[in-house]
Amino acid sequence: MRDSNEKESIVSINAVSKSYQRGNQPVPVLEEITFDIARGEFLALMGPSGSGKSTLLNLIAGIDSADSGSIIIDGVDIASLGEAELAGWRAAHVGFIFQFYNLIPVLTAYENVELPLLLTSLSRRERHEHVETALAVVALSDRKEHYPSQLSGGQQQRVAIARAIVTDPTILVADEPTGDLDRVSAGDILALMSRLNEDFGKTIIMVTHDPRAAEKAHVIRHLEKGVLSDVSA
Amino acid sequence: MFLLKLLARNAFRHRLRTLLTILGITVAILAFGLLQTVVSAWYAGVNASSATRLITRNAVSLVFSLPIAYQERIRRIEGVSSVSYANWFGGVYITEKNFFPSFAIEPQSYLALYPEFVIEPEQKRAFISDRKGCVIGQKLANRFGWKIGDSIPLKGTIFPGNWEFVVRGIYTGAEKSTDESQFFFHWAYLNETLKKTIPRRADQAGIYLIGLKNPQSAAEVSLAVDTVFKNSLAETLTETEKAFQLSFVSMTEAIVVAIRIVSFVVIIIIMVVVANTMAMTARERIGEYAIFKAMGFRWYHVAGMIFGESLFISVTGGIVGILLTFPVARKFGDVMDQFFPIFQVESSTLYMDLSFCLIVGLVAGMFPAWRAVNIKVADGLRRVG
User: Fold this and answer.
1) How is chain B split into domains, by residue range?
2) Which of A163, A205, B49, B116 has the greatest number of C-beta atoms within 10 Å?
């Protein structure tokens, strides 16, 4: 079922199916998923564990491949890209926010944010400007020389968000971004993500279990056993 | 630059583990360097031997001597520039523990044949003119604190009796490989004494040393010498000095081979240790590599990080090991002076050390890099948390 949306679609998912092999048995994870995500939309994917929401997020982010169907992002069918092209595409178009922040522990906040820019042709000075801007957006300019171990969970997640937005990607994918945070920090992170969506027009696709987190999204899609079951706005 | 910084910081993430691995490599390279230097020391005589000299000995065995009358007949052979002779004396200074090589030589011709023994002209003159005089190497002089004019008593083992010598000269080596632990005295002194004590052993030379006009003619001259004395009472065997020295080394070939094998086993063991360290490291960081790949870093970036870290550890350990090899080898050489008069770390050993550091680093990084490169991003991310 494809939802009609007056806004321009930035992500178009068409009949996507995915299964994993367990021994000789294929275990279906996603079945014939079809929907669009509008540019500037904040989408929450919800569902019980094992419903396939993280798998769907991975497919949209281009870090996993579908068995069938197509995913077109900003006009590019990512299934048609080779490994090298896909890596380049991810670097330019996708910002990742993970549940456990996934910062590199031996790098400072500044260096962690700078990482994705190393794959660009920006000069050292330009990289510096981008990193400073990203850290300012997440209000962590004063902590840029701190290592992840010297930051709280909420601060680490803000550094991870700065790292995700520093290349100004087309979409931001967030897998349980508040799953490892206390209530206050989770609220801060969600507020920040809302601001990124509203003030900077970022398209955000977020997987979450948390109904409070999902409340921040414009659209909530529910997955049940690999099938889209419900849509709420 | 950024990746180099990341690589160095990653290497010391588990400081103790990395330091212990570096220590292991240091010890392995040090052990390899020392064992290879022992092998080099074994071959020192061979390496120091000249291509322009031949040695003629009794064809039956080195134990049997040759008549002194052979000297003139050898001198007349085409291609021979000079002839000298010597006897292995095998003297002992006070006790057997104080062993050093001692030879009875014909001074003028012998020293002319061995320009690598550098001796002051006055000392040389003093030695030649004193029948009881001797010339000793600088190392030997240092070992016993001997100086010019000292009287040295030696106990004969092959030529029984107590022999008195006066130090008339101390030679130094023209090259690093020149043995400075030898003791030379007049063959005439030995011969005159033998004439009085054991006349049947007089007028005999242990070996003849032949100088060649042209090094290329070594084979022809050797053949010519042996042909001259064919079917005589004392047939000869003539060979190059190198071949002569090699015949001694070949008697102990098994030991040399064993040392060589042990030195390579040490390297293989440390390779396994470093590989284990890198495998642990990569296993722990597989999630991080997945994050790098998710951000768009390519397989060669990830492989570069692993190989870089592996090489960083192995080369650091290797360089420390190489730097330590010199003082340790010097100390070892001092202690083992009587067995290894020339104990020097050769440049070939250093090249091998460096090559092995690189090989260890590359081999140790191979499997972890293969795993990290091949893991799917989604699978790697599942391991984080």
Assistant:
1) 2-44+253-382, 60-234
2) A163
